[in-house]
Amino acid sequence: MRILFLSTWFPYPLDQGSKIRAYYLLRSLAEQHEVALASYEDVELKPEWRQHIEKMCARVFTLPRRPFTVSRIRSWLGWLSPMPSAVVGMYSNEMAELVQRAAREWQPQVIVALTFVTAPYALKTPGALKVVDIDNYMARMLMETISMADSAVGALRRRLAYVKFLQYEKSLYRKFDLCLAVTSTDRELVVRELKLTPNQVAVVPNGVDLSWYQCDTVVKEANTLIYNGALTYQANFDAMEYFLRAIFPKIIDRYPQARLKITGRTEGVNLNELRLNDHVEFTGYVEDIRPVVASSAVCVAPLRMGGGTRLKILEAMALGVPVVSTTKGAEGLDVQHERQILIADTPDEFAGQVLRLLESAQLREEIAQNALELVKDRYDWKRIGGDFCASIESLFTQTTL
Fold this sequence. Notes:
By secondary structure, the chain is an alpha/beta fold. The protein is built from 16 helices and 13 strands. Helix 1 packs across helix 16, helix 7 (138-146) runs antiparallel to helix 8 and helix 10 (234-254) crosses helix 14.
């Protein structure tokens, strides 16, 4: 098949979750089919990054523009529109033209669009089958933030945004031949709330490349906690605000040698809103996150919002680091509390589970080993990519018979 792959992010280097998912979905298709990529350039591309992707793809079309760049005029118009202001504000005529050019030159039989950002451009291209990856179900994420608003006006604004996104996603995704959900939970939600048919939605989870996650020589730092998620993403910032305010002080009171490392860029993040102290370290952007995670004693995932499979959790599990998570953070993962992960939903419980791991090397080893076996069995990108390709091929076969 000839496939046109539309990516919100340029899928290399693998330095954040959305890029990782895009890269492995793209690679799995490129291993078996002819694939062209049309993508935003979210950062200035190094020649070797582009060359890496060009080895996988027959054609690469890019637009030097950040995917979430918002036009102020369009954004203001969005408040008067039934469509979400973010969707109106981010729409790019240049990207629409790029996708149309790519489609004319490539003549794809299937178009795969990542997220609601690139989905509208796919729909403007006639003839090809349309597949969309619902990496995050935005209406659901917005609904979860309503109760966290600090004022009645803030809650009202968030509710309005939620209603708009719900209607928009309901209208958008039903136009696709196949939608991809990251977890079975997400699949059930979008089928029910967006009024999609069950056979219109397939589950393609996130995963890890087990051949890449090998850090056997790293020395463990027995007192170190890790949060491997950039605070530029709202769900990550909320998780750390909650952890630093309500949980970490309880840990330090009982285990004063505890340290917390937070990875990823912090540009544009108001760190003054976080309860920081000498026990907290920001690593900033690191080209290879594996040694930072692998050297830690415990990975914490105190997430309270968002959807999809948490790559940060799978990443830690693949590197032999035990995880403490909220129920929300572990949502969609085929894990058992006390076997592959420890789950806690109140500050006292969460602090208690972290302390159990810090104080017991045996428990850390048991949880980490069980989690690694689970990742090998269920979350290897090689297996996930094969199933993903099979879903696309089945769709194509059914519609061409």
